[in-house]
Model the fold of this input.
Amino acid sequence: MSALLDIKGLDVSFPTRRGTTYAVRDVSLTLKPGEILGLVGESGAGKSTVGNAIVNLLEPPGEITAGEIMFQGMNLRDQDAEAMRNIRGQKIGMIFQDPQTSLNPLMTIGAQLVETIMKTTQVFGSAAINKAIDLLNSVGIDQAEARLKSYPHQFSGGMRQRVVIALALAGDPDLVIADEPTTALDVSIQAQILELIKSLCRERKMGVIIVTHDIGVIANIADRVSVMYNGAMVETGDVRQILTDPQHEYTKSLIAAVPRGDMKVHRFTSVDYIEGGAQTHRRIDLDRHWLGEKLGQQPSPTAISVDALNKTFVLKKAFLKRNRVYLQAVNNVSLSIKTGESFGLVGESGSGKSTVARLIAGLYNVDGGSIKLFDQEVANKRTGKDVIDARRNLQMIFQDPYSSLNARIRVQDIVAEPIRFYKTASSESEVKQIVRDLLDHVGLGSAAMLKYPHEFSGGQRQRISIARALASRPKILICDEPTSALDVSVQAHILNLLKDLQDELGLTMLFISHDLPVIRQMCDRVAVMRHGEICEIASTETLFNAPQHPYSKHLLELMPSMEDFGKTG
Amino acid sequence: MKVTQPMFFFIFRRLAQSVLVMAVVSAISFSLFNFVGDPVNNMVGQDATREQRLEIREQLGLDDPVLTQYTRFIGNVLRGDFGISYRIKRPVSTLILERLPATLELVFVSAIIALIVGIGLGVYTGIRRHSWISRSVMAVSLIGVSLPTFIIGIALIYLFAVHLRWLPSSGRSGVLELGGWKTSLLSLEGWRAIVLPAITLSLFQLTMILRLVRAEMLEVMRSDYIKFARARGLSDRAIHFVHALRNTLVPVITVIGLNIGGLIAYSVITETVFQWPGTGLMFIQAVDFVDVPIMAAYLIFVALLFVVINLIVDILYFVVDPRIRLGGT
Done:
C-alpha cells in the first residue's frame, strides 16, 4: 500500500531578532492508511509544530522553509490558501489537547457540527442533522439527538473530547492529527478516548498521528513511533522495538525516566542527556546549617491526624435553601500520617484529594471534623502561638509552577519571605546567606537570586517553590501534583530532590497525584479517594500487588504500562 | 426566547435594585429644591412684600415638614408631574416631552454610527492588524479618545459649515410631526442638520468601542476554538463573524450599555455647541437661571434612562451567553 503521508526533510523556522531559530529541522516521516504513528518528545521538541505544519496552521511568524509534505500524492506546500482550507476538515482532521477550550462556548454542539458538515461534505438540511447524530453516536455519545441542542459547558471533559473527535471526523478525513488528545483527561477517560481513536482508525482506514509527551499513551495505541528531540527526529521504528530496544541515547534516557508502575526502585533514573550532563551544585552540610537545626522538643510520632473531615461547596446559589446545589467534596475522611512517613493520596480529578490537602493546610475552612498537626488541633484556627507554630511546620508545593510564584518579586525575596515573616534569622545578611544556601541545596545555584520567576523553566520554578517551602523549616510538606505540569525527565529530577530532602531532613510528606507509578515510587502508604471518600488505605506494596477495593483495582488496570513490552532495566 | 428560572430571578433582583437607585436619585433631586437658593426669590419681583412672599410659600407648600414635601414630590413624579418651570412658567413634563425627541434622535443616530463604525473597524483592525489601514485607523482613533467633545464639535463646524459651507452650523431643521413625535429624520434638511452633532457626539464612544472590540478580537483569535475552527476547514468569514465576533460581544455589551448612557450625558455639551434644541440644552439653560424643577426632572430622567439601559444590557447577557442562561452542569 502506498503512503498516505510522506514528509521529507521538513524545516520549520521562526525568524527572530537574533536570527532564525529552527523549531523543526530536517524531519521525515511516512504514514500508511490505517496506521497510528506516535510522535513523542518533551515540550519544545517541535512535535506539535510538525502537526501544525502539515495543515499549514503554523503560528506566524513560523514558516516552512524546506522539505516537502506529500499527502495522497500532492505536495501540500504547493496548495494555495483556498485549497488548503478544503483539505483541512475534508482530508485532514485535527484534535487538540484541551476539550475545555477547543469548542466555541456560545454555540450548541449541533450548530458547530452542522456548520462543519455543510462546509466539508456539502450535505445540507436534515441530512446534515442526521449525519451529526450519526457522528455523535459513533463517538459514543448517548441520546445524540437531544444532545445536539446542548452547549459545550453542559458536557464533562471526556464527553467534550468525544464531541471534538466527532467534529474532526465530520468531513470523513483520511488523516487525523491528534495533538495531546488525552493530556487534559483523567486516566479512565484517557483509556476510553484512546480506545475510541483506535477503533475509529481501524473502521475508517484512517491514518492517525498522535502527538504526545506521554510514553504510556504511545505504548497503548501506536503502531510505530517517531521520537523527536530539539526539533530533530532522533529515532523512528516499530513501537515494540522503540520501547524495548531503543537505539538512540535520548530515547533510552527518556524511557528510563518514566516512573515504573511494576516495582519500587530507590531513585528515579535521571536523564542526563537532556539537562546537559550531571549538574554540579554545592550542597550544604545540614548538621551544622540553619536548615538542619533541631527545633524544640522531640515531635509527636503522629504528624497529621485527620478525623471525620467534611467539606461541602455550594455549586449553585439560590435564595431558598432547598434550591441550592451542593457538592460534598470531602465526605467523612479520616487518616493519620506518621512522622517521617510519605503518604500518598491518589484519585481522579474531582475525587477531593486536593481539597483534603487544602483543608489540612488551612486554605479552606472545614465544615466538620478535626485536623491535628503534631497533636495540635488546627481546624478553622488562625490565631494563637501554638496554632501558628503548628502551621509553620506545614508547607505546600503547588501543581502549577507558573502561577504559584509571584511574577513581580525577585527569587531571593520569594524565598526570604517566610524567614523574614517568622523572624527566624538574626540579621538581613544571615537571611541572604540562608537563601543562597537553600537555592544551592535545591540545585538552582545562587545566581538565581536576583532573577524573576519568568526567567526560569517549569522544573526550575518548582525548585524555587521547594526552596520557598523549606525556608520556614517545615516538618511536613504537602505536594499537590508537584510534577504533573512537567516533562518526564524534569519530573525525575524534582522527585529525586524531594526524596533526598525527605531523607536528610526527616520530613513528613503528603503526596497528592493522579499518577500511580509516581505514587508507587514516592510513597510508603497510599489512600485511594473517589467522590470525596476514601476507598482504601494500604501500604504501597500491598495496594499495588493486592488491591482490595474494586475502584483501586479499576485504577490499577488502567495504569498505562510499558511493562507489557517486557521493558528491561 | 424562553425565559428560564435563573433569568427570571436575576431580572427581578435587578428591578429591585433599580427601584432603590431611583429612590436615591429622587431624594437628591428633591434636595435641590431646598439647597439651591430660595425658589420664592426667583419667582417674585424685587419689590414683592413680605406678605406676598409668605403667601407664595404657603401656596407652594414650602412650610410643610421635609418628609411631607418629599412624599408629595414622589407622588407627583409618579404621576408624571414635575412641577412648573420657574422661568418658563409651563409644566416641566410638557417641556421635557417637547424637547425629548430631539435628544433621543441625536443619541440614536450617534449610537448607530458608533456601533456600526466602531464594531466594523474594530473587527477589521483585529483581523488585519498589520495592514496600513489598521495602523492609520488606530492612530486616528487616538484623536477621538483624547480630544474633548466641544473642540471636535467646533472644529467640525469650522470645516464643514464655515469653510466648506456643506452643512448647517447649528440648530435643528426639517422637523415633521409624526403622530405626536416631532422628527427630523424624515427630511433631507433634517439629516443635514443632525450629521455634525451626531458625529461629534459619537466620536468618543466610537473609538472606545473600536479599541475594545479590537482588543477582544485579538484575544479571541488566539483561542483554541478559533484554531480548531480553522482546522475544520471553515471559511474565514464564518470564523471571523460567527465564531469570533459573537465571543467578543460578551464584554463589549457591558461597555456599550454604559456608553449609551454616556451619550445622553455628553449630549449636554454637544447640544450646547450645536444649539441643538434637546433636553441637554434645556438643562444647561436651566442651570444658568437656577430653574430647579427642570434640573430636578432632568436628573431623574437621565437616571431612569441609565437604569433602563443597564437592565436591557443585563438581559442581553442572557441572550448572548448560554453559560449564564443555562448554568453549569
